[in-house]
Design goal:
Chain A: It is found in: Cell membrane. Chain A: One of its GO terms (cellular component) is plasma membrane. Chain A: InterPro entries: ABC_transporter_permease (IPR051393), MetI-like (IPR000515), MetI-like_sf (IPR035906). Chain A: It is a multi-pass membrane protein. Chain A: Keywords: Cell membrane, Membrane, Transmembrane, Transmembrane helix, Transport. The complex is a heterodimer of chains A (about 300) and B (about 300). Chain A has helices at about 1-35, 50-55, 60-90, 100-105, 115-135, 150-175, 180-190, 195-205, 205-220, 225-230, 250-260, 265-295, and strands spanning about 235-240, 240-245. Chain A has one domain (about 60-295): Orthogonal Bundle (MetI-like fold). In chain A, strands 1-2 form a two-stranded antiparallel sheet. With about 300 residues, chain A is mostly helical. Chain B is mainly alpha-helical and about 300 residues long. In chain B, about 75% of the residues lie in helices and about 0% in strands. The longest helix of chain B has about 35 residues, at about 265-295. Residues about 1-15 of chain B have low confidence and may be disordered. The chains are: A mainly alpha (about 300), B mainly alpha (about 300). Chains A and B meet through α1, α3, α4, α5 and α6 of A and α1, α4, α6, α7 and α9 of B.
């Protein structure tokens, strides 16, 4: 029995120690710093209470980031899931090359946000314009990254390209776990393909939808890397009568605030991001789980 | 697969079935090309001079020799040590994956095999922490790592061991969660028999349980590997943007910052960043896809 207890402690120690040091301790420091006047320069940190939180919702740049992050998330969740679900249907169909396609669609997921941000910046600003010029297509002749109302869509297209292949695999796993007899029985009864997808496949895949919606929701909310290298927050626009960055998402707003030495304000924003994520994730999972139960 | 392969057929006449199949094939090929265009454009334009790109970004390169010229420009660059970043990235990723896989598997096994409150609590805390966004931790973490490094008399900031330690902390949650789900389905009888035979707990784990984890290990390695290899914020905070230790994403941003709009160099640096990952994927794609699908719904 003694050996067992010793093994328990020794086996748990490395991960628990790293986890406490890297996540738990900084997390509570992070909560505390949001209630101080920490500026990253002065060594003295004084407690000032909820002042930063009171101020947050009067800051146009923060409000704007909050709003476009929600807009981006709404667009992105729908786009990514429609594309990845369609891809999962394609690669589980009877196409001869389905495994080749499956491997191919997954490739963009291997590329990090930083690198693909530059690649797509080049595509939007050079390739699409060159295509637009040579074929005289009007709407391609101005970069989608240069206009406040198209830049969010452009980011969503890039994110869809990156994540679809990964979510496709989650849907594929779900499709493969459905007994084929169900679909075959419906087919024998003469139900057309689309009807079978809507009435059998989608309800049976409720679990996969819960997972992929959760992943896309949280990832869209926390997006930073691609935002940073694709647009760096640009172009400039106006919001509530003040100049703001049109594509500066929530996470980037936090980083930019910290780089201006407003560390405590950045912490308060980050805590708001955390709370928003928790609330959104809880609502989404609760709704989806209820749907799963009904099936 | 084959059991579901008839889903897309109309099941009526042969003609409409064939028409449906051709339509599906056409749509798929179109989508596939769309997905691959960015890669093609990176390769084409990495083989051009800056002038050529500005003149015509969608043309075929004038000479492929320019690709080697661009690559040697990257590797011989004075401002950014690209080769060094390669080595550092490789070391950080490799060592982090090693400690994450071994230590997370050990912890998950202990948490599954002990039906006690403390085991449930530890597991719950690990899982709950997955919701914490990195932005809440990142600045306090850097400050704390400096303090901790002073206390342990071991430099954590700006070093590879510091990086690996941080990745173990961030990676353990998801990895323990995945291993936990898998170990639950391993029958206990094997271990019980070994215990009766007088086998120690550590031997049971390393000789019986650990080898059984191979299929799920692929999933854990891929998910963590993709994340660590491409990560930017954590390395830039721990290592700094021009410290002695660098990673590839930091090197690529350094290039883009130093050579504004010089797409020949920026694109070549992204091409070099992508290449090792793509090559690895081409060799191991069957295992990678299989591992990802198996680990997806657990």
């Amino acid at each position: 029995m003694n050996n067992k207890r010793l093994v328990n402690i020794l086996f748990l120690f490395p991960t628990v120690f790293a986890f406490v040091m890297i996540i738990v301790v900084p997390f509570f420091f992070g909560l505390y710093y949001s209630l101080t006047d920490w500026n990253g320069v002065s060594p003295n940190i004084n407690f000032i209470g909820f002042k930063h939180y009171m101020n947050l919702f009067t800051l146009p740049d923060f409000l704007h980031s909050f709003v476009i992050t929600i807009a981006f998330t709404a667009i992105n969740v729908i786009l990514v899931n429609i594309v990845s679900f369609s891809l999962s249907l394609i690669v589980t169909s009877n196409l001869k090359l389905r495994n080749f396609y499956r491997a191919g669609f997954f490739v963009p997921y291997l590329i990090g946000g930083i690198v693909l941000g530059y690649i797509w910046q080049f595509l939007f600003n050079n390739i699409f314009l060159a295509i637009g010029d040579s074929l005289s297509i009007g709407f391609l002749q101005a970069s989608f990254l240069s206009k406040p109302d198209t830049v969010i869509w452009a980011m969503s297209v890039v994110n869809t390209w990156q994540y679809s292949g990964y979510l496709m695999l989650i849907y594929v796993a779900s499709i493969q776990s459905i007994p084929a007899s169900l679909m075959e029985a419906a087919q024998v009864d003469g139900a057309p393909y689309l009807k079978r997808v809507i009435h059998i496949l989608i309800p049976m895949m409720a679990n996969a939808f819960t997972i992929s919606l959760f992943l896309t929701l949280t990832n869209s909310f926390k997006l930073f890397d691609m935002n940073f290298t694709l647009t760096n927050g640009g172009p400039a626009t106006r919001f509530l009568g003040t100049p703001v960055k049109a594509s500066q998402m929530f996470a980037m707003n936090i980083v930019d605030t910290a780089q201006a030495n407003k560390m405590a304000e950045a912490q308060a924003k980050a805590v708001v991001l955390f709370l928003t994520l928790v609330i959104v994730a809880l609502i989404q999972v609760t709704i989806n789980k209820r749907k799963e139960v009904e099936m | 697969m084959s059991s579901l392969s008839r889903l897309s057929q109309k099941g009526v006449g042969g003609n409409s079935r064939r028409a449906g199949r051709i339509t599906l094939e056409a749509i798929t090929i179109f989508l596939f090309i769309l997905f691959m265009v960015p890669f093609v454009m990176v390769v084409l334009n990495s083989a051009k001079t800056s002038k050529e790109i500005i003149y015509n970004a969608i043309a075929w390169p004038e000479s492929w020799g320019q690709l080697w010229t661009n690559i040697s420009l990257i590797f011989n660059n004075r401002t950014v040590d690209y080769l060094g970043a390669f080595v550092d990235s490789f070391l950080i990723t490799f060592l982090s994956l090693l400690v994450i896989v071994v230590f997370s598997a050990m912890a998950a096994w202990v948490l599954v095999r002990n039906h006690r409150d403390w085991a449930v609590w530890i597991f719950m805390i690990f899982v709950a922490a997955m919701v914490i966004p990195f932005q809440v931790l990142m600045y306090p973490l850097v400050r704390w790592m400096r303090v901790l490094g002073d206390f342990l008399n071991f430099k954590l900031l700006g070093t590879i061991p510091g990086m690996v330690f941080a990745y173990l902390g961030f990676g353990s949650s998801l990895s323990i969660f995945i291993f936990h789900g898998f170990i639950k389905n391993i029958p206990y009888e094997l271990e019980e028999a070994a215990t009766i035979d007088g086998c120690t707990q550590q031997r049971i784990f390393f000789q019986i349980v650990f080898p059984l984890l191979k299929p799920i290990m692929v999933t854990v390695l891929i998910l963590n590997g993709i994340w660590i290899w491409n990560d930017y914020l954590l390395p830039v905070l721990v290592l700094g943007s021009n410290g002695a230790v660098q990673t590839i994403p930091i090197a690529v941003t350094a290039f883009a910052g130093a050579y504004l709009k010089q797409w020949d160099l920026i694109l070549t640096s992204t091409l070099l960043a992508i290449l090792p990952v793509i090559v690895l994927y081409l060799f191991a794609q069957r295992y990678i896809i299989k591992g990802m699908v198996e680990g997806a719904i657990k």
